[in-house]
Amino acid sequence: MNIRNILLVCAGLAVGVVMAQFNIFPVSALTTALKPSGSAGPAGSAPRFTGESVAAQEDQSVPGDTSKQGLITEPLLWKSKHLQAAINVPVGVFHPHEGEWTMGPIMKNNTELFKGKRVMEIGTGSGLISLIAAKHGAAKVVATDINPAAIESVTTNAEALGYGDVVEARLVGPDDMSAYAVINDDEQFDVILSNPPFALDLDAPGNDAVTDTGELGFSIVRGLEQHLAPNGTVILLYDSLFYHQVMVKYAKYMGYDVRNNNPNGMYGWAAESLFNSYLKRLLESEKVPLDAISFNYHTDEGLEIRYLRNFALNPKQMKYQPLFDPPSPQRYYAGFIVIRN
Predict the structure, then answer these.
(1) CATH architecture of the domain covering 3-267+309-340
(2) Regarding predicted confidence, which is higher, 231 or 52?
(3) What is the pairing mode between strands 189-194 and 167-171?
């Protein structure tokens, strides 16, 4: 190996170490813009999970045993590092791998937030995050979801793991999908967690596992005055830049203390919605038929992930405020928002 090749290898290793240290790879697994990886292994087995560092993932696209929306298509036994246990995930539930390597490390590094506390998770999916909160000593966890299969998942696994008296699952009905629809008026929580749908689409027929018409995100913040206990903490993952910034600005507007670590860009589906919204106004003003042209992230090269996300984001080269004060590790959690009252 010549000197040039040795230097290239060393440079590559250095870049990898920096990325692993600061968790600066894209945080979301809701990448409907990416092709399924097909690397999940035998049917019914969990995709390989190699550790808490995002850089340790061999693939960050939708796992091979899920639909394009990240929903489980075959029963799954998920062996969780942060729960230190396995859970059974039924068909039709959002895959737990995103929560494992995004919310999981934050919870591990801030266990004091959960000990003896009342916790709510909005949009629990498989229930993994609620179960991790129980593992870290939460006195009570209320897990909500619009999906009956998700309620089945969290209830069954909580009972199996001995957290049945701690974790309570509540189904959100179709008539009101706002954040606190199934929360009593006098209920308050010390910690509110959510990895909500952040594919914002005002024209969608309704909310689902990956899409928010705007109702859910804003209702999370609106309800904090009533449901976040004094000195409480909210941890949200919005990993597409536009909706992330909207939520940060709205929470500040509502008077809360907000810290955020920006995501490293946006996804094709987010760009498509924004582009088409403004394009419609342009076509109307220029008297061009509205169906003459449109943007489609599946076919338009300019909306490909490589143009929309900065995979070389380096927190050391910019000023950022850590989400948590010491002794919590001072890391950059891309896409996360922490709100305190």
Answers:
(1) 3-Layer(aba) Sandwich (3.40)
(2) 231
(3) unpaired
Count the alpha carbons within 13 Å of 251 in the hemisphere toward its beta carbon: 24
Long-range contacts of 148-153 (CB under 8 A, 24+ apart): 149/90, 149/91, 149/92, 149/93, 150/93, 150/94, 150/124, 150/125, 150/126, 152/90, 153/87, 153/88, 153/89, 153/90, 153/93, 153/125, 153/126, 153/127
d(CA 196, CA 233): 16
List the domain boundaries for the chain: 3-267+309-340
Distance, in Å, from the CA atom of 197 to the CA atom of 195, rounded to the nearest integer, reads 7
Q: Count Cα atoms within 13 angstroms, Cβ side, for 34.
A: 22
To the nearest 10°, the Cα dihedral for 12, 316, 239, 87?
70
Q: Tell me how crowded residue 285 is: count the other CB atoms within 10 A of its CB.
A: 8
Mean pLDDT check: name the lowest of 6-10, 29-33, 111-115, 322-326: 29-33
Where is pLDDT greater, at 44 or 260? 260
Amino acid 147: pLDDT: 94
pTM: 0.80
Radius of gyration (C-alpha) of the chain in whole angstroms: 20
- Classify residue 257 by its DSSP letter: E
The residues, ordered by sequence, that sit 6+ positions from 204 with a Cβ below 8 Å of its Cβ are 211, 213
| Beta bridge partner(s), residue 143 | 121, 169
| 64 φ/ψ sector (left φ>0, alpha ψ -120 to 50, else beta) | alpha
Amino acid at 20: A
Q: How many residues does the chain have?
A: 341
The arrangement of strands across the sheet holding 140-145 comes to 167-171, 140-145, 118-122, 189-194, 228-237, 336-340, 257-260
pLDDT tens, 62-98? 455 555 567 889 999 999 999 999 999 999 999 999 9
Mean pLDDT of 207-216: 82
The secondary structure of 131-159 as a DSSP string is HHHHHTT-SEEEEEES-HHHHHHHHHHHH
**First vs last Cα of the chain: how many Å apart?**
58
